Amino acid sequence: MTQTLILLALAIAAYVVLRRLATRERRSLGIGDAALIGADDSELAVEALRSERLGLVGRPDQLLRSGRAYIPVEQKPSARRLYPSHAMQVAAQCILVQEVYGVRPPYGVVVLKGGRSERVAFTPQLERRVLETMSAMRQILTTGQAPGPRWVQAECTPCGYRDVCWNQAESN
Question: How far is Cα 71 from Cα 35, in angstroms, rounded to an integer?
Answer without folding.
Answer: 10
